[in-house]
TrEMBL record:
This is Sulfurtransferase. It is an enzyme of class 2 (transferase). It comes from Pseudomonas benzenivorans. Belongs to the dsrC/tusE family. The keyword Transmembrane does not apply. InterPro entries: DsrC-like_C (IPR042072), DsrC-like_dom_sf (IPR025526), DsrC-like_N (IPR043163), DsrC/TusE (IPR007453).
């Protein structure tokens, strides 16, 4: 998959399915990317995706798992900022999958 067709627009993706252009992100794009991952986004997912976008706006990078967990715990509390909670939401790969769905670059230290 190297592109998505969303609302009449072609959205370019890299070889791993991440957006090539951050400005192409929208909730509709996130939903389409989630469908490709066989994931239905609910309110808990959106809370994390919005938080990730805020993190990126502040630090200009996508966090790896450990910083993501710490940031979520800081902003949303320890129940939501746990590796178990985030792994359940994002199929065992929270940093990579959440970054992809939030329209952010792949975290640099993720394989």
């Amino acid at each position: 998959m190297t592109q998505l067709l969303i609302e009449g627009r072609t959205i370019a993706l890299d070889k791993d399915g991440y957006l090539l252009h951050l400005q192409d992100w929208s909730e509709a794009v996130a939903e389409a990317l989630a469908r490709e991952e066989n994931l239905h986004l609910n309110a808990e997912h959106w809370e994390i995706l919005r938080l990730l976008r805020a993190f990126y706006a502040e630090f200009q990078l996508s966090p790896a798992n450990r910083p993501l967990i710490k940031y979520v715990a800081l902003k949303l509390g320890p129940d939501k900022g746990s590796s178990l909670h985030l792994n359940l939401l994002f199929k065992g790969a929270p940093a990579k999958l959440a970054a992809k769905l939030a329209g952010l670059p792949k975290p640099t230290n993720c394989l």
